[in-house]
Amino acid sequence: MQERSTIDQGYKKRQLHLAMLLGGFLTIIAVPSVCAQLTLPTIHPINSATFAQNLNIYDWQYQFGWGASPWNQLDFVTHYDYFSTMQYSRGEQLWKDQQNADLIIQKRALQNRILLTRFDFTSLKDQFSSFNYDRIQAGMTIAGRFPLKQDISIQPEMGFRMENRKELSESGPYFAINLLVPDQEFFDAAHKLDAWSETSTFKNRQNSQVRLNYGIFGEVTPGTRDSLNFYYDFLRRDNFLGNPLNKIVESLNKKRIGFNNNLHYSIGQDAGFRMITDLSIAGVDIGRDSIAQHISNRGHDDFDFHNNIFMYWHGENHKHQLAVDFGESSTEHYLSDSSTTFSSSQGLIGVGYDVIEKFTRISEKSQYRLSDSDSIRFYFGLSKLERDNTDRARSDTHDEQRWTAALLHSRRLSEFITLRWELSTYLRHFVYLNSQLSGQNNWTRILKFQPECIIRFSPQAELRQKAGIRTNYVVSDFASDNSLVNNYVIRDYFITDSLAIEFSEKLTCLLDYRYETEELGSLNWRKFSSRPRTAWRNQWGTLKFQQRFTSRAKLGLGVVFYEQKRWNYELNTENRLKKEHVGTHTNLGPVAEFLFIAPNGSVIVFNGKRQKAFPFIGKAYYINNLELRMQWKF
Predict the structure, then answer these.
(1) Which one of 1, 45, 338, 391 has the lowest number of neighbouring Cβ atoms within 10 Å?
(2) d(Cα 510, Cα 3) in Å, to the nearest integer?
(3) For residue 115, which of 158, 67, 175 has the smallest C-alpha distance?
(4) Is there a contact between 155 and 38 (Cβ–Cβ < 8 Å)?
(5) 455, 408 in Cβ contact below 8 A?
(6) Cα R_g (the chain), whole angstroms
(7) Structural domain total, the chain
(8) Residue 148's CB: how many other CB atoms inside 10 A?
(9) Is 133 domain-assigned?
(10) Is residue 273 part of a domain?
(11) pLDDT in tens, 125-165
């Protein structure tokens, strides 16, 4: 992956200033989900249009969001999003269009009562898929939020939902209710309750959801905080299986119950202990019904447990973290008696095999500041995973162990030169418990060394150079002198250069270059010898000049370059390895970027790249990557 250039401190501040301006103006508004408590969202006005092209994919997007309070105690928010994608291939155009719109009106009444109304609309047309997913969905919801006592409130909702598809048109009522009991003090602890229920009913389908959360928060002793949350979820989703005219409905019912405990204990000012425990039990039942009769049932029971223990301590010149994670998850599938009467191809669709996974992880991080210009960091991690699968035909039951260690040292030689280096190692042992797959058991050993040098010639010029060497050995547990199929070695090397020169306060030059090479070969681990099989070399280059006309306008022009060469190693008639050139792929072309932020907040952003590609085989062609974004400020 190409390294990004790093520039001097003054230039960074100006780039950050532009990024903050751009981020503040290009705010993306998410349309609230229908299946949630109806509220009036906070909105940043937006009116933007975007066009992008990547290869043969063209994207158009328009977003509009606005809110106001035209009269006293009356507020409204509206959104409209339009997304369109076109794929052009072999003279044919395939389109996917989606529209989302909503209008939410809020009226504040007497005694802190709130009345809300929402209208929403969604349209989807998709030619990419082989299935017919085209549909139009619309709905209206009326809600009222009524305070009961102190901060306790209840919000009933009612409305209707409508869905039109090519084969079928449906509509039905919608009901929901929400109870919110925030932070009630009892027995030196804060108690919180949140309950939510909703249901949509159609002629042959029903969608419903129930959520119940109860939490206790408190300080057990000075410096010790504890929280305990219990939750219950129920979800039902009915969908037609295939063509709705076949009148076969698949109903998913999911129930989940669990708790979460978070304990934090401080040991003075310099140390602490934290433990987070999660436990949940879920049951999923999927029934298949026709309009006249019940057809089949399948489902699975899920169990999930996760515990994290985290300890930290620090001093004036050192920091340490020790973490222990362990947990278990399982999935147990089942079929009803009626399902067993169906053929394997029909009754077993979507039914998997029972799986149990257990994991344990231990990690430690340390950081030492040896002096004002010298620091060192160390990391060590150990993990173990056990996976048990009941599939007798293709069981992938296995154990896996991983060891990781890394050492990073940074030293500032002077005000202008900083040296960093990183040494890391990775060891993995993978073992299949199935004797038929034991031939794939292997060890993976990775060693990496990566130095970096940062040279600041002046406040206007900075050079970063990084290099890396990595070796990856994969060895079968049953390796022999003649076993070269499952044993291989990968050696790669890279070097990157990043240079930024600020000729003036308004003109900057950015130069990036990356070179990497990799060789793949068969490995004889016992003799620690290898035979190369393939090799490739990549080069990337970017030269860009950026001109800042004002603090709100910037233009960048440059050129990009990419090249890949590949080789194969073959035995010649003399039984000697011969390196044969397979081919070369090259990309070359201009790049341009433009940013303008008007005084009223309107924004124009353009990024473009056009490359001529010379492939390994065939004629040259062009690759276009374009993006144009315009946003108008209210």
Answers:
(1) 1
(2) 12
(3) 158
(4) yes
(5) no
(6) 31
(7) 1
(8) 11
(9) no
(10) yes
(11) 988 876 667 889 999 999 999 998 878 899 999 999 999 98
383-400 pLDDT, tens digit per residue, is 999 999 887 667 788 899
Cβ contacts of 525 within 8 Å, gap of 6 or more: 473, 475, 479, 487
Whether 235 is covered by a domain: the verdict is: yes
Contacts 24+ apart (CB under 8 A), 60-63: 60/84, 60/85, 63/28, 63/29
514, 2 Cβ separation under 8 angstroms:
yes
Alpha carbon distances (Å) from 595 to 15, 504, 600, 602, 633: 12, 19, 15, 11, 15
- For residue 196, give the nearest of 174, 207, 212 by alpha carbon: 212
b/e code 560-582 from CB counts within 10 Å (16+ = b): bebbbbebebeeeeeeeeeeeee
Task: Map residue 618 onto helix, strand or coil.
Answer: coil
Q: Whats the size of the chain, residue-wise? A: 634
548 touches 534 (CB < 8 A) = no
State how far the Cα of 217 lies from the Cα of 189, in Å rounded to an integer.
6
Q: Note whether residue 337 is domain-resident.
A: yes
The Cα-based distances of 480 to 443, 452, 488, 528, 629 in angstroms read: 14, 39, 13, 12, 60
Q: Are 239 and 247 in contact (CB under 8 A)?
A: no
The per-residue pLDDT for 477 is 83
Task: State residue 484's pLDDT score.
Answer: 52
The domain in which residue 336 lies consists of 204-209+227-303+322-346
Sign of CA dihedral 40, 44, 50, 55: negative
The pair of structure tokens assigned to 557 is 């022009």
d(CA 543, CA 590): 10
Place of tokens 């509220």: 39
**CB distance 58 to 88 below 8 Å:** yes
CA 510-513-518 angle, 5° bins: 160
Distance CA 412, CA 496 (A): 20
The H-or-E segment that residue 110 falls in is none
